[in-house]
User: Fold this.
Amino acid sequence: QSALTQPASVSGSPGQSITISCAGTSSDVGGYNYVSWYQQYPGKAPKLLIYDVSSRPSGVSDRFSGSKSGNTASLTISGLQAEDEAEYYCNSYSSRSTHYVFGTGTEVTVL
Amino acid sequence: QVQLVESGGGLVKPGGSLRLSCVASGLTFSDSYMNWLRQAPGKGLEWVSYISSTGSNIYYADSVKGRFTVSRDNAKNSLYLEMNSLRAEDTAVYYCARDWRHGSGSYSPWGQGTLVNVSS
Assistant:
C-alpha cells in the first residue's frame, strides 16, 4: 500500500493560515471524493477533522477546511493557534489496493 | 458519551498470538461499521481491517491477510482482532475506530489504543 505524500513539516505564526498538501494519483485522491484528514497529538488517538474532501463533523472548528484539485488534496488551518501544534494525516480510498491509505503525516509547528 | 476502549495488547514473541478487544459504549454498536488501525512507533497510520455491522463483510490489509481475523459480538458491544504468526513489523499501537460516514474512509471516534510489542 503506497502512502500518500505529505510535507514532513509546516510552520506558521499565530493568526496566520497554513496549508498542508496530500499528493496522490488518479487511482486515489484524484479519482474519488473520499479524502479525510486527522489531527493527532503525541501519545493520543487521531481525531477526525475533515471527511469527503471538505465536510466537517460537528464540533470541529471552522478554522479547518479541506479541498482538492486534481490529484492533490489540501487541509487549510486559518487563524493558527498554539493548540494546532500536532501531527496531521490525510487518508483516501485507493483503487489499486481497494483499501484506504494514509498520508505520510505532517508536523505542524506554531512559531 | 461515545467511547471505545481497547485491551489485550502486550509483549509477545515472534510467531506468537494475541487477541485484542474493543468495547463500545454510548453508541448503537450493532449499527456501527468498525475498523482496526495501527501505528508503529514513530511511524504513520495504517488501516488494518474492517467489519460490517452484521459481520457479513470483512476486509484486511495485504500486510495482515491470512494472519489476522476480525470478529464482533453485537450482544456484548465488542470488537475483536485475533492476531496469529506475529512478526516484529506488527509492533504498533492498535486502535479500533468506527466508520464516521460508511464507505468514505473516515473514522470517528477512535479508542485510546493498545500497544502490541512483538519481540524475542
